[in-house]
Design brief:
- The protein has seven helices and no strands.
- It is mainly α and about 400 residues long.
- The longest helix has about 230 residues.
- The radius of gyration is 70 Å and the shape is flat.
Length: about 400
């Protein structure tokens, strides 16, 4: 079953010329689709496809018509190439005409009565393929016969070779067994002799080691006894010397402790007296400072409270004046706004604004507001003082 690659290769062979014109795979695919479309128009029926072309799963084009479609595809591809070469700059003369002639020949063959000759050629190709298949079958049968004879000869040769090898194996196995028995007997004799010699050597070595061990143990016991005696003598002497040193050290330490205790007692009495005197003087000074600080603190608190009271009275007066001035200004502004509204109204008469004394009232309130502002400027601004009050304990004002 032919696939897309087979058709592309055959189309490329048909398009070969002396100028070695290059055709891209895309141009060949477009030419092949064009030829299939034309072929479908001439053979109305089931859709015709080529495997791998536009994801087709199988080739449904009849084998007898493959050559027809390839010729048509070559013609359309040459026509596409001819058109694309027309726009090439500095092109060699005659290239486009040559391609157009090739395209015309192939398309004439594809579309006209020459298709019948191509179909006949396709039929001849089918007959040739059938004859070739018969020849291949005959050749395979002959090869099978030769293979059977060769296999029989090979099997006979292998059987003879295996028989000879079996005889050699049996002979070699017997020879090997005899040699193994002889070698094992010799090894057994050598092993027995070696074991006897080994046992005699071990007994002699053990006897010598036992004699050496007894002598070494006696020498070791004598050395340990002498060492222990020397150590006992040294320990007795060292203990006596140590006891003498400890007694002398304790006596000196006791004398030093008595002298230190006496000096410490004298120093403690003097230090205690000095500490009592210093503490009494400090307490007296602290009491005097506390009395003075309490008096100063009370005076400061009275002065601060008096200033705060004066500031509060002044602030309340200024606050009342400010509120009165603010209300006056607000009322004057309301009257002025009402006057403006009355003036702007369409139905307002000219005499209504002038005769109601609104302007006189506004001037009166404005004069009062300005007077209040003038009085406010003449007043001094009160100033507050920070609160220096603290916890009233015995340490207040010391630091």
């Amino acid at each position: 079953m032919a696939v897309l690659q087979d058709f592309e290769d055959n189309i490329a062979l048909l398009l070969q010329d002396s100028a070695h014109t290059y055709y891209s795979d895309a141009q060949i695919l477009v030419g092949l689709r064009w030829a299939l479309s034309e072929y479908q128009k001439m053979h109305v029926g089931a859709p015709i496809a080529i495997q791998n072309l536009d994801a087709a799963p199988a080739t449904t084009l009849a084998a007898a018509d493959w050559k027809d479609v390839e010729v048509g595809a070559a013609g359309f591809t040459a026509l596409i190439r001819s058109v694309s070469r027309v726009e090439t700059i500095n092109m060699e003369a005659g290239v486009t005409d040559n391609l157009a002639q090739i395209a015309g020949n192939y398309l004439a063959t594809f579309r006209n009565s020459d298709i019948e000759s191509i179909s006949a050629q396709s039929t001849a190709d089918i007959a040739r393929d059938a004859a070739k298949a018969v020849i291949d079958l005959a050749r395979d049968a002959a090869l099978d016969t030769d293979d059977v004879a060769a296999a029989s000869a090979l099997a006979a040769a292998q059987t003879a070779r295996d028989a000879a090898l079996d005889v050699d194996f049996v002979a070699n196995a017997a020879t090997k067994a005899t040699a193994d028995l002889t070698r094992d007997a010799a090894l057994d004799t050598d092993n027995v002799a070696m074991e006897g010699t080994k046992q005699a050597n071990l007994l002699a070595r053990d006897a010598a080691l036992d004699t050496d061990n007894v002598a070494n143990s006696l020498t070791l016991q004598n050395a340990i006894t002498a060492r222990d005696a020397a150590l006992d003598t040294d320990n007795v002497a060292m203990e006596d010397q140590k006891d003498g040193h400890i007694a002398a050290r304790d006596a000196a330490k006791y004398a030093a402790d008595i002298a230190l205790q006496a000096a410490g007692d004298a120093d403690n009495v003097a230090s205690a007296a000095a500490a009592v005197s210093a503490q009494t003087a400090r307490d007296t000074a602290l009491d005097l400072d506390n009395v003075a600080m309490e008096g100063i603190k009370s005076t400061n608190l009275l002065t601060r409270d008096t200033a705060l009271d004066i500031d509060n009275v002044a602030m309340e007066g200024i606050k009342a004046i400010n509120i009165t001035a603010r209300d006056t200004a607000k009322y004057a502004a309301g009257i002025a706004l009402q006057t403006a509204k009355s003036t702007d109204a369409i139905e307002l008469q000219a005499a209504k604004s002038e005769g109601a004394n609104y302007k006189l009232m506004a001037e009166s309130f404005k004069q009062a507001f300005d007077l209040g502002l003038a009085n406010l400027r003449r007043r001094s601004v009160p100033r507050s003082h920070p609160d220096r009050r603290s916890w009233k304990d015995k340490w207040d004002g010391q630091y």
